[in-house]
Specification:
Blueprint lengths: L18 H11 L9 H13 L3 E5 L2 H11 L7 E4 L6 H8 L3 E4 L11 H13 L6 E5 L8 H11 L2 E5 L7 E2 L2 E2 L8 E5 L12 E5 L2 H11 L3 E2 L12 E2 L10 H11 L2 H19 L4 E3 L6 E2 L5 E5 L7 H10 L15 H5 L8 H9 E4 L7 H16 L1
Parallel strand pairs: 2-3, 2-4, 4-5, 5-8
Antiparallel strand pairs: 1-9, 6-7, 6-13, 8-9, 10-11, 12-14, 14-15
Bound molecules: pyridoxal-5'-phosphate.
Length: 389
Amino acid sequence: MPRHKIKTMIPYGKQQINQDDIDAVVTALKSDFITQGPLVPAFEQAIANYCQAKHAVACNSATSALHLACLALGLGTDDILWTSPITFVASANCGLYCGAKVDFVDIEAESFNLCPKKLKTKLEQAQHNKQLPKIVVVVHMAGLSCNMQAIALLAQEYGFKIIEDASHAIGGSYLQHKIGGCQYSDITIFSFHPVKIITSVEGGMAVTNSLKLTQKMVRFRSHGITREPNNEQGGWYYQQLELGFNYRMNDLQAALGLNQLKRLDSFIQKRQQLADIYKQALAGLPIEWQQQSQQSLSAYHLFIITLTGVAPIKRKQLYDTLQAAGIGVNVHYIPVHTQPYYQQLGFKMGDYPIAEHYYQHCLSLPLYPDLSQSQQQKVITKLQTELCN
Ligand SMILES: *Cc1c(COP(=O)(O)O)cnc(C)c1O
């Protein structure tokens, strides 16, 4: 019998779970409350404090949190939601869940983020056609904040609400403030999927400074039910006031998330250090990477390179070569409007040329706190070999 060796792969991203995390989850599991105990509100408070926001609503995923945010902002069937084509499908799907029409604004070639100039042009046209969006979901790609000042000015002028999809960006900052402070938005969303910056296994959070939006999200999170005391009825009484969902986070997830939060700043520091090493080592190769701005400190969920015209190797070929060498590179993202489901809605190839060009050339390199020096060196050496010929 041939003996198969299991090849160890360097993944593009990976959670860090330590003994302290495990102990925290086990303690929660042995406690009286494993679903809706004290840890969910404690995690919410800790995230709100970290971001210096007033309120936080924990959910079972960022996808749920995006849906709750849209519901709280009153998105409905006559409304329009815009987002970036370079994102995970969830940033757009939340609009469709509400029956709204979804449309996209192309990205900036340098930052991979939704382009404020193209947003302005599209808004001018939309105003003319009476097709203005109710919500714009901006995505902080790879952890780098969008140009929120410019986008918030347009929100004032054209009267739309802003949701920051900061699934990549907890721990990053913009103009000296932690992302999530909602200085320039109505609601900010974080994801705690294991591949993101900190994890609660699955989980998400909606952060806001508005009590009214918080109350709405809390109600939609749990079936649209309130439990306000009613003396005429009795202590058991509850009322369903609208059609909500079960999007709740549980105490085991919150236990892990809370404990991970203690290491958030050190995770970010490590990610930034690793990104700096990539930049130094890869300078001079025929590639580019996401241009950082003076205003932002990226959380570096991803380190994305783009292969420029003169690279001797095509992206697909480089992807295959690195994968075969045990280096788990990935591609973020397939433009949402090119997905079959969105093509059925009428979008077509060519609609967002910068996003499509970016997609043809981008590649995410391994980046996570436990990526070792020798693992990173392996990635660098392989890239140097493949890109120098
Ligand atoms: C991961 C991700 C989501 C969805 O997060 P889940 O917690 O898995 O639902 C949404 N938007 C972006 C940009 C993401 O990267």
